[in-house]
Structure formats: structure tokens, C-alpha cells
Design goal:
α1 (13-22) packs across α11 (218-231) and α9 (166-183) packs parallel to α10 (201-208). It is built from twelve helices and twelve strands. The protein has two domains: 3-96 and 218-269, 3-Layer(aba) Sandwich (Rossmann fold), CATH 3.40.50.1860; 104-215, 3-Layer(aba) Sandwich (Rossmann fold), CATH 3.40.50.1860. It is of the alpha/beta class.
Amino acid sequence: MAVGIFDSGLGGLTVLDAVAKRLPEVPFVYYGDNSHTPYGTRDPQDVYELTTAGVQRLFDAGCDLVILACNTASAVALRKMQESWVPKDKRVLGVFVPLIEALTERQWGDNSPPREVAVKHVALFATPATVSSRAFQRELAFRAIGVDVEAQACGGVVDAIEDGDMILAEALVRSHVEALLRKMPSPDAAVLGCTHYPLLEEVFSDALGPGVTVFSQANLVAASLADYLGRHPAMVGPGSESLYLTTGDPRRVANKATQFLRRKIDFTAA
């Protein structure tokens, strides 16, 4: 009865932590493609091939449902996977939709026509590949009208976090926020469109200033997953044990993951 969590590196651990706390009875299999991180600067075909390889490994581990806890994979690869690759008895879900539903104050599964919403000016912080895909704007347009989105590609932030250089990561965040505010001086809300970014949520909030609501993904995805499994209990697969898989050096990844979550996690080679 395991559920798969896929990420290009360590950022998806923020989602794993939230869903594990929300659903303590569900075993999770985490797959981190640490040897190929970051995905945010890769071309779309490369992202697609790496993502399908990782998701297949999760299917093989007994996961019938996989969450792409990677915004770049969700933005670039998910739609193509759902249309032509995912087997009929499996499901792969992304992390954009729960966030957009929260932003637009929609209930899960509300497929009514797009409508006016309270938020009018949204700042999107994401990887270069996510920004280029315009997947966030596309999904938002299905649900809301009249929302202005200004996207900022946050180059270097994921690399700094993965390298453990949080001083550099904070400096880069502040620089990217300044760049966005020059284009959109008064956003109503900010979306952290990368699962690494919750680790720097306080820095984003401080740099944006008061009055800007910051939407982060981990808890929103956890709530959405709990709702989904409540309505589709059969999608909890046959796997019965939690696993932590990586394409990188298991010991090195485990040490970084332990620092991230402040609890010991042992990784094995994928």
C-alpha cells in the first residue's frame, strides 16, 4: 500500500515530510534523482526521459500512485506522461494543481468555468524550465480569469540548496525577489513553484514584505493527497514498506536528507 514520491533531488523531501505527517498509516517510497539534479536547466525531452525512468522505478516498487514532487517535472513532463505513457491502472499526479486550487479558493475537482478571484497580481518563483513551460499560467487559466502572473526564473537557488550553501541560497533568493518586484511592485500573492523553496520560505516572505501572501506547496499537496486517497482508496498500491531511493551516492544523500528533515533517513541505490 505504498505511494511513490518522485523528485529530481532533495526538494521533494518537504512534500514527503508533510504527506507522511498527514497520512502516517501510508508507507511512502521516495525516489530522488540526485545524480541528475537540478532538472530546472535541462531541456524538456531530457526531463521527460528522466522522469519516466524514475516513475517506472516507483511502479516497480509497488506504487500504483506517484506524486511528482518536482515542479519542473510536473510542468514539463506530466501532461505528456498522462496522455501517452502512464498505464491505465496507475496514476501520476503533479504538485501545481493543489497550489492553484488554494490560490483560486476552489475545492478539489471543481471543474466549473474559470471565474474572477480575489487575487489579481501573482508573483511566481520557479526554475527556468518551469517558467519557460508556462504550465502554471495554463493551469491557472482553467480556473481563474483576470489574474496577472509575473514569473521569475530563480537560477542557482536549487544548486545552492543541494550543495548545502544556504548563505548563497538566501542571497540568490533576495536578488530574484528584487528583480521580480522591479517588474511587479505590488503582488497580492507569491507562489513558491519549486519544492526546494519552502526551505527558504521565511526569506521569500521577508524579501517580499508585508501584505504578500506566500503559497508554499507541501501542506497543500498533503491535504490534496489525503482527499484523493479518501475518494480512491484502490490507488494505494501493493507496496508495504517505506523506502528511500536515490540515483546518487546513498550515504551522501542520506546525510543531506537528515540535515533537511532533522531526522535520520537511510537511502539505498535506485
